[in-house]
Design brief:
284 residues, alpha+beta, six-stranded antiparallel beta sheet, five-stranded antiparallel beta sheet, 3 helices, 19 strands
Length: 284
Amino acid sequence: MNKKTRTLTGLFLTTFLLITINLFSAQNAESKSPNPLSLGFQIINNSPGTTLYQKDLDYVQVIDLSQGAKIHFIYGNIADLGTKKGAYGGNDPQFERQKISQIWSNFSSENFNLFSITNGQFFRNDKHSSTGLAFPVKSDGIIVSDGYAGEIEFSDEKLILEVWNDRALISRFQPHNFQLSTAPNFIVGLQENADKGVQDQTGRTFIGVKDKDGDRLNETILIFTSKKATQLHAANVLKSFGATEVIMLDGGGSTQLICQGNSYIDSPRTIPQMIAIFSGNIIQ
């Protein structure tokens, strides 16, 4: 066997080995992916790329970005720009507060792919009709708020959920360079064990990310909402669905969930920022 033939043979074997490893990783990831039905959850609503599961008071949404599903961080009308008043040199706007049922009515008639809306970012809860957000939020390429809390609150316990069209990532929040994120959408929240009444049985909103096919990209976003759960329970449910990282968002009386026009978790509280989930393409 001459040198050229040995080189070609070596390249072929290397390529074959890499393909085999990738296929095995993908199959292994799929085989380890839990079946929500085996966990006692039932499908109560689904659409292309999106599924809503329920078990008792717990709801879990599975959003598959690889199937065209989308997640957007929407917010109320801005009453005051709060220019340069943000914690990191940006803006700290005052957003009008609404119930998600109001937002659903406004959005669903013009967005046939709208699947669900839940609550999102922490905020200052007072009697005013508008308020600021505690931590940064980026929506459709624009950082709409720096937040007001900065490093005063939970300085070492903040995480950031970044969402691209085809993947998502949860990582430690970097206060000095989050503006450099290439993700068109992100939201900052807290670690699963940050003290927001850790053992309290109260409303919870947690988000997890999952790599469903072993390609080291998180194509799946999981959203847990419940009117009554501890932080540990919320995190563990998402992990049982395959989440590798989780982030805690606002909870308590802010916890709300509406899906396909049905209100599954309702609250009289108005909120300034919400998470909208859109299904993959639906032919009308």
